[in-house]
Design a protein that fits this description.
Length: about 600
């Protein structure tokens, strides 16, 4: 009945023989006269989701998370992960080979400084590190005279005998009815940010796809084309992309406003620009150190800054916002159908984490507009729900019984990207679960109801989501919210609600609101909606004020709510939200789901 077309559940961790791979890498480093090597989980664009050929960290260590960093020395090695993966990493790697460390407690540079011998030579691939990253390492390692050595080739690539080929996904033109602005209008706006620079080297494929109104298929679940672009102050931009990705029709459309070149042309073009003494902006967050140093060595003047498209891309235009709202209505209907089905099927037994994920994808496909899921569905029962970025495989798949089930999922539609998390209970909810769930819900409501002046950043709002947990001595180790793209990445910057979110929030930005709580070995709770930053009119206000419009539509599990812990204002918000969900979605679901929805959204 149900099936998954956009995701698989194969355990493809590429673990192999990590001991043999590590031994071979160390032998190669010794041959090159190196004492160590840096292995980030990154490609040449610093993407979160990378092509299979760039999964070097997974190949070497077995760790499959979307963020990680290994340091390999002659006698020891360490693998650094953030709070999302501190549980997961222990189950995926051999701790005798790689010591797992929380990057919030120990940075790779600090560890390397304390474990490498004085004067050591540490190799790195300049295509997968930014200049900022290398500079940061260099400052910390300088005291012990540890040298960072850029390599012409990544030594892992030579050892990885069955390494996948570079992707060649087809590029498509993103229609103006979804983009809301022409590529020409965007390019004109971006040029204004160049100021006294001669050009900007665009290295973030998300920014390039947004600016040129294209989408691609080079990485899973995110419709981007891996490419670079050079945006000059005058003249046509250059797009450096594999010709195999372009159909004649797409090529003709692009050649109306830009010059198409191969990726191999980029280094030579930077050399020529350097010889002319050109000043070129590089995105400090994504530009490979290799390209920055190529321009500098040729006599040019590299200037590290933000990609000129980063902020404009984050501030959605009216058509993009309309599309996001429309996508969330369809997506909410699909998720509500799933939740209604799950409430009946789960208590009967027979469901697994995989079959539930397959069912949810099927409900989304049945709306007829699904292009892909926006990330692998986190379908997690019991103790797996305590792993924030858990990915179910045929090996880990649990049967769903009485207890907590968490599903974090999203979809890619031409008019919008969705991301939503619901936590539900099969059977009765314990007193402890109701308290934890309700404290997370209080944090969610605090963000949803927040009103703040212009200039406030996500870092200033992050504590709103944690206060109720802090009062009980609890917390969670991930950000409260990330930015979301317009049929682009489900994780978009620079906007975020987290301790690191320093970018001021502006109207038109889309973010997630997803506080959580994770009880290791038992269960996890996360409640996520997407919100749009909007202007708020407040009588007598002396400053421009903003708030959030919640666009995700799906009921919260009232069986997990402890009303005594909610204030009248919080109860009012929850009841109003559920009334809105019921009103908008009821006409879009079948009679059986409609009946369930009425019961699921009754007033508290």
């Amino acid at each position: 009945m149900f099936e998954a077309k956009f995701q698989t559940f194969i355990d493809d961790a590429m673990r192999g023989d990590s001991a043999a791979r590590l031994k071979a890498l160390r032998a190669e480093l010794k041959r090159q006269g190196l004492d160590g090597f840096l292995v980030p989980r990154a490609d040449a664009h610093q993407n979160e989701y990378v092509p299979k050929c760039a999964e070097r960290l997974a190949w070497l260590t077995g760790f499959t998370g979307s963020a990680g960093f290994a340091v390999v020395l002659e006698k020891e090695a360490a693998l650094f992960v953030d709070g999302r993966y501190v549980i997961q990493v222990r189950g995926e790697i051999d701790a005798k080979l790689f010591k797992p460390l929380d990057i919030a407690e120990t940075t790779p540079a600090a560890w390397l400084s304390g474990h490498a011998r004085e004067g050591a030579r540490i190799g790195y691939d300049p295509w997968v590190h930014t200049s900022t990253q290398i500079e940061r390492f260099g400052k910390i390692l300088a005291e012990r005279k540890i040298e960072l050595v850029p390599l012409d080739a990544n030594p892992i690539d030579a050892l990885w005998v069955d390494r996948p080929a570079e992707p060649k996904g087809a590029v498509a033109i993103h229609p103006a009815r979804y983009a809301g602005a022409s590529a020409g209008a965007k390019i004109k706006k971006l040029r204004a940010a160049l100021k006294d620079a001669d050009a900007a080297l665009m290295s973030d494929p998300h920014a390039i796809c947004w600016a040129f109104n294209i989408r691609g298929a080079d990485v899973a679940h995110t419709p981007i084309a891996l490419c670079f672009a050079l945006l000059p102050k005058d003249g046509a931009p250059a797009l450096y992309i594999d010709d195999a990705k372009l159909s004649p029709k797409v090529r003709a459309a692009l050649e109306k406003f830009l010059t198409l070149k191969t990726p191999e042309d980029l280094v030579e073009d930077l050399v020529q620009a350097g010889k002319r003494g050109a000043t070129i902006l590089f995105d400090s967050a994504t530009a490979p150190a290799k390209l920055v140093e190529t321009l500098r060595a040729a006599g040019g003047k590299p200037r590290l800054a933000d990609d000129p498209a980063t902020l404009p891309k984050a501030i959605k235009n009216e058509r993009e916002l309309e599309g996001a709202r429309e996508a969330h209505i369809r997506d909410g209907a699909a998720l509500t159908r799933f939740l209604a089905w799950f409430s009946e099927a789960a208590p009967k037994g027979g469901l697994t984490e995989i079959s539930a994920a397959e069912a949810l994808e099927t409900f989304r496909r049945e709306n007829g507009d699904l292009r892909d899921i926006s990330f692998p569905t986190i379908s997690a029962f019991g103790e797996h729900a305590a792993i924030p970025h858990y990915r179910v495989t045929e090996t880990s798949n649990l049967k769903i019984g009485r207890g907590v089930y968490l599903v974090d999922s999203g979809a890619q539609y031409l008019d919008g990207t969705t991301d939503v998390t619901r936590t539900v209970v099969v059977g009765p909810a314990s007193k402890q679960l109701r308290e934890h769930f309700t404290r997370v819900l209080k944090g969610h409501i605090a963000i949803a109801r927040a009103v703040f002046p212009k200039g406030v950043s996500g870092a200033q709002l992050d504590a709103f989501a944690r206060r109720a947990l802090w009062e009980a001595g609890l917390d969670f180790d991930h950000g409260t919210g990330h930015g979301v793209g317009a049929y682009l990445s489900v994780h978009e910057g620079p906007q975020r609600i987290s301790k690191l979110g320093t970018t001021p929030l502006q109207p038109g930005m889309i973010l997630s609101n997803e506080p959580g709580y994770y009880r290791a070995g038992a269960y996890g709770v996360r409640l996520e909606n997407l919100v749009i930053v909007e202007r708020r009119e407040i009588k007598g206000a002396e400053r421009e004020m903003y708030g959030f419009e919640t666009i995700t539509l799906a009921p919260f599990d009232l069986n997990c709510v402890e009303p005594k812990l909610l204030s009248p204002e919080e109860i009012g918000w929850l009841n109003a939200y559920h009334a809105r969900v019921r009103k908008i979605l009821s006409p879009l679901v079948d009679a059986k789901t409609r009946k369930w929805l009425r019961e699921a959204t009754t007033s508290v």
